[in-house]
Specification:
The protein has two helices and nine strands, in the order αβββαββββββ. By secondary structure, it is α+β, with helices and mostly antiparallel strands. A hairpin with a 2-residue loop joins strand 4 and strand 5.
Length: about 110
């Protein structure tokens, strides 16, 4: 009886965890990757470039903190390669961080 109960818990717990994560991922806002260096969200375009780089990096080191996950790109897959959009701590919604996998791709700014 105990082994059967343990087996059910070991089977149901991972399924429940994956289900919750899938629902969370499905409810994220979707940013569209338009062209190299452009993200689009609800008719707002975010750009990256040298000026944005100078604003958020000092001597090649980032001088900002990533706050929370706010969206994903249209290329992001749940079971696969993740492309996500994060907010910057202390900044407005006009500045976001684009992350491919586990690497920061760049900081994007709405102009």
């Amino acid at each position: 009886m105990v082994k059967k109960k343990k087996w059910w818990i070991m089977t149901i717990a991972p399924l429940l965890l994956v289900s919750v994560l899938f629902i969370y991922d499905a409810n994220l806002e979707v940013y569209t990757t338009k062209a190299a260096g452009t993200l689009v969200y609800k008719n707002k375009e975010y750009y990256t470039g040298y000026e944005t780089y100078k604003k958020f990096y000092l001597n090649g080191e980032r001088n900002f903190e990533i706050e929370k996950l706010i969206g994903k790109t249209d290329n992001s897959k749940f079971f696969g390669f993740k492309e996500s959009v994060w907010s910057i701590k202390g900044e407005s919604e006009n500045e976001v961080v684009f992350v491919k996998g586990l690497m920061i791709e760049g900081v994007y700014e709405r102009k």
